[in-house]
């Protein structure tokens, strides 16, 4: 017995909500770090650390830029307490649920279409490249539907005025029109290789270590998810940073730069901060990403089993 695309999508969405809620403060801190912009006028002194560069670039209130994850969490706690660590949680969870529901739905559809196309070939298995392509295709289709939620989520996480979702949506529309809700679409489509690498690697590692075993234990799923997400994050981190910078809420900060596209953001990062700019926020990104992905895979397999158990109960009652 197998789950339908809708049931698979619901399982994936619920698992992602649980996982992302558990590590949300890391998600908030990595967004704040990644959207910091060092002005181009700031000279790069090779003998100084990146911290000293940020200390030269303060906001209008004289506050230093965030240095690292712990610095973000300490300063938020000092101003707003524990609740400050969960600023923007609702929109993030809404976006996470929608994105994962959409991704798992289309991923299941795409894989079933591919399987049906090759069902006449006995014991046919997709190559690694094909697995990556199918994952990227599913992610690209999903992005077209869920991009506006991602834009609003990043806007809320970087909004110092604490506007609600409706107000932020109005501001995006007023500033850029309907296309503003798809700001960063090009880099998002390129970033489709991230879930592609994650799920492609996961499936390959799963086959390599566990063969045809249909359902893994929570520890097995978590371990494979951590390895797969780590690989994907290291490869795509510069694109992740540029996407966050594109979707950051506009402000009156004199250091604020409005980027024309992700190549403009990457060029700015390289000219101002070099590799440290391209990979800033990598620590919380990795910790948040690998734990979320590990937990997601761990919960998803268990939720799949739970859904199948419920379906069997329903069928038994009908009889």
UniProtKB/TrEMBL annotation:
Residues 42-59 have a biased composition (Polar residues). It holds the Pfam family Mito_carr. Keywords: Membrane, Repeat, Transmembrane, Transmembrane helix, Transport. The keyword Transferase does not apply. SUPFAM superfamilies: Mitochondrial carrier. Solcar repeats lie at residues 3-113, 126-208, 216-306. This is Mitochondrial thiamine pyrophosphate carrier 1. Its main location: membrane. Belongs to the mitochondrial carrier (TC 2.A.29) family. PANTHER family: MITOCHONDRIAL THIAMINE PYROPHOSPHATE CARRIER 1-RELATED, PEROXISOMAL MEMBRANE PROTEIN PMP34-RELATED. It is a multi-pass membrane protein. GO terms for molecular function: ADP transmembrane transporter activity. It comes from Candida tenuis (strain ATCC 10573 / BCRC 21748 / CBS 615 / JCM 9827 / NBRC 10315 / NRRL Y-1498 / VKM Y-70).
């Amino acid at each position: 017995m197998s789950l339908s695309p809708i049931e698979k999508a619901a399982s994936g969405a619920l698992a992602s909500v649980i996982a992302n809620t558990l590590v949300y403060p890391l998600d908030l801190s990595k967004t704040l770090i990644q959207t910091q912009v060092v002005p181009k006028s700031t000279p790069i002194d090779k003998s100084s650390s990146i911290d000293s560069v940020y200390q030269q670039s303060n906001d209008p209130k004289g506050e230093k830029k965030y240095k690292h994850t712990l610095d973000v969490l300490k300063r938020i706690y000092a101003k707003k307490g524990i609740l400050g660590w969960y600023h923007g949680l609702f929109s993030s969870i809404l976006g996470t649920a929608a994105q994962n529901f959409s991704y798992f739905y289309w991923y299941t559809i795409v894989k079933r279409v591919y399987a049906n196309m090759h069902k006449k070939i006995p014991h046919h298995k997709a190559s690694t490249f094909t697995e990556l392509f199918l994952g990227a295709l599913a992610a690209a289709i999903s992005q077209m539907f869920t991009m506006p939620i991602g834009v609003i989520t990043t806007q809320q996480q970087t909004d110092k005025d604490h506007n609600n979702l409706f107000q932020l949506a109005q501001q995006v529309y007023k500033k850029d029109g309907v296309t503003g809700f798809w700001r960063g679409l090009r880099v998002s489509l390129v970033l489709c290789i991230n879930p592609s690498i994650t799920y492609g690697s996961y499936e390959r590692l799963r086959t390599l270590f566990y063969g045809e075993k249909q359902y893994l234990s929570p520890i097995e799923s978590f371990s494979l998810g951590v390895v797969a997400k780590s690989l994907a994050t290291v490869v795509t981190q510069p694109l992740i940073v540029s996407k966050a910078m594109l979707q950051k809420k506009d402000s009156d900060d004199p250091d604020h730069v409005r980027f024309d596209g992700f190549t403009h953001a990457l060029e700015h990062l390289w000219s101002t901060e070099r590799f440290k700019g391209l990979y800033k926020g990598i620590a919380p990104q990795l910790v948040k990403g690998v734990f979320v992905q590990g937990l997601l895979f761990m919960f998803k397999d268990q939720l799949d089993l739970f859904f199948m158990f419920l379906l069997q109960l329903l069928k038994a009652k009908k009889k």
